[in-house]
Structure formats: C-alpha cells, structure tokens
Design brief:
mainly alpha, 224 residues
Length: 224
C-alpha cells in the first residue's frame, strides 16, 4: 500500500478517489440547501435532529473532514511535484488537445475554495454542531434562521457566489480528471464522461448558487 503515498500514480489515484467522494458530498449538501427554498422547518429538522451533535453525524463529519484534508494535502503535493518535474510548463501534453483555463489553474482555484471553506465552517458548522458538541455557550439550533442572517449581508452573498463559480471551474476539470486517474480512460467513454461531469458540475453549482440569492431577496419566505 506504500505505492499510494510514494508513487506519482498512487498519489493521483488517492486524489481522484477523494475528489469523487467529495463530489457525492457536494450533491448531498446542495440537495439539503435547496430545502431552504421550500420550508424552513424541514431544514431545521434535517440540520438539527438528523445532522446535529449525534454520533452518526459526528462520524460522518470526521469522514468528510478526512476526505477534504486528504484532497487538499495530495493536491499540494501533486502541484509541487508537477512543477518540479515540468519547470515552467505546468501541463505537458503529447496530444493537440488544448488545456482549459480551469485545468491550468486548479491549484489557485483550490486555494480560494480552501479560504471559502474555512469561512463557511466558522459561519455555520462552528456555530451549530461544534458549539453543541463541546457545550459552548451560544450554540445555534435555529439553523434556517442562521442561514437567513448570514445571507442578509450582500457582501457575504457575493463572496459565496464567487466561491461557487470557482467550484464550478474546479469541478469541470476535476470530475473527468478524477475518473481518468482512477482508471477510466477509454477514448469513447472519456468523451461521454466529460459531458456527464460538466452536467453534474453545473447542477451542483447552480443548486448552491441560487440559494444565497433567493434568501437575500426573500424568495424562500414566499415558498416557506
């Protein structure tokens, strides 16, 4: 199993598997966020009763956190490794296929998303599950109201929307690249998977994108 850590192929494989796992998490998170547009009470039930400081939610949080840590660390390692091996050329290609902007800037996009993740965790996870778990005063149990308060600030909304755009670019390249690194590299299927990856990435990011705007404009209250 040491090849997963020591070899370039092993590192890429770990990076791809962690990335695909996080995409599944993003699909779940996006779906849960959309509940806010229809009913605050249902969202509160999901966030507090199902995903509060319960043992299964804590275990799940630990697994997701491990996925993020692995993805971030391996991403940094692979970026350093690639730059050392290729010098000024970030991406080496033996074909005539042009590299996309997102593929050339995955590391920068990743750093911005890491900054966003830290802010996001402090604004929500720390205020809810973390404070409840460690019995810190001020733990929030009105999750929907907390989300509404956070997205009442236009600058926060703009920051989140920029992060979702960055996430879209990151996923557009990352989805099919992860499948390729995991061994799915048939020429015919790769083209189809690229299209599928683009569709899934767009659905995820659109789902995230509309929630802050809808809440800021008060649209969710009309449906709730």
């Amino acid at each position: 199993m040491s090849w997963l850590i020591k070899s370039s192929i092993g590192r890429k494989f770990v990076q791809s598997i962690s990335g695909l796992f996080l995409i599944l998490f993003l699909l779940f998170h996006m779906s849960m966020n959309l509940v806010l547009l229809f009913n605050y009470e249902t969202y509160d039930f999901l966030a507090n009763e199902i995903l509060g400081a319960n043992w299964w939610a804590i275990v799940g949080t630990g697994v997701i956190a491990a996925g993020f840590v692995i993805h971030i660390i391996w991403g940094i390692i692979l970026t350093i490794q690639n730059r050392k091996a290729r010098g000024k050329e970030r991406y080496e290609s033996s074909s005539k296929t042009k590299t996309t902007w997102s593929s050339q800037n995955m590391f920068v996009l990743g750093l911005f998303l890491l900054l966003f993740l830290i802010a996001h965790l402090f604004q929500f996870w720390y205020q809810m599950q973390f404070k409840e778990l460690f019995m810190i005063e001020g733990a929030r149990h009105d999750s929907a109201q907390l989300v509404a308060e956070v997205f009442s600030n236009i600058w926060v909304v703009i920051f989140y929307e920029l992060a979702f755009i960055a996430l879209w670019f990151h996923l557009m390249h990352g989805f099919w690249s992860a499948l390729h690194s995991a061994g799915v590299n048939n020429g015919v299927w790769m083209k189809r998977l690229k299209v599928l990856g683009n569709v899934i990435s767009t659905i995820i990011c659109l789902g995230f994108f509309i929630v802050p705007i809808a809440i800021y404009l008060g649209y969710s209250n009309l449906l709730g």
